[in-house]
């Protein structure tokens, strides 16, 4: 009976699940292809980092090209994972990113906001929605003014 080596991406995910941000970052620095590589369940390092609340690692992954809107096998994005696991700081950070998609529905037909388990995260989504609807209204008004 031979022992199969554990794929590097699964080693990375194991480090993240155990909260070993520094070691996980080191693996990504040594092999940048791990940043967006899919593992079991088609999760990425960012899915796991967001779920575990590892803000420094999450920021490192995003800065180094992690797909912030990547979907796993259940159509969850990293934002779904962070909201579901009540990772306030991660949710706040992801919502600050310009291309974050907040309306993605997972296989249970839920958006990240609908998975929010605490009032802080619900409030973050409400603030995000207000901020973005106000900026959309402002853009429509500016576009209308330009048509003169």
Q: Per the principal axes of the C-alpha atoms, what is the gross shape?
A: globular
- Give the CATH topology: Serine Threonine Protein Phosphatase 5, Tetratricopeptide repeat
Number of domains: 1
Mean pLDDT: 90
The ordered string of helix (H) and strand (E) elements is HHHHHHHH
CATH architecture: Alpha Horseshoe
Alpha carbon gyration radius? 18 Å
Q: What's the β-strand tally?
A: 0
Sum up the structure in keywords.
mainly alpha; 8 helices; 148 residues; Serine Threonine Protein Phosphatase 5, Tetratricopeptide repeat; single chain; 57% helix
Task: Note down, in words, how this protein is organized.
The chain is mainly alpha-helical and 148 residues long. The protein has one domain (8-146): Ankyrin repeat-containing domain (Serine Threonine Protein Phosphatase 5, Tetratricopeptide repeat, Alpha Horseshoe). 57% of the residues lie in helices and 0% in strands. Helix 6 (88-95) runs parallel beside helix 8. It is globular, with a radius of gyration of 18 Å. The chain starts with 7 loop residues before the first helix and ends with a helix.
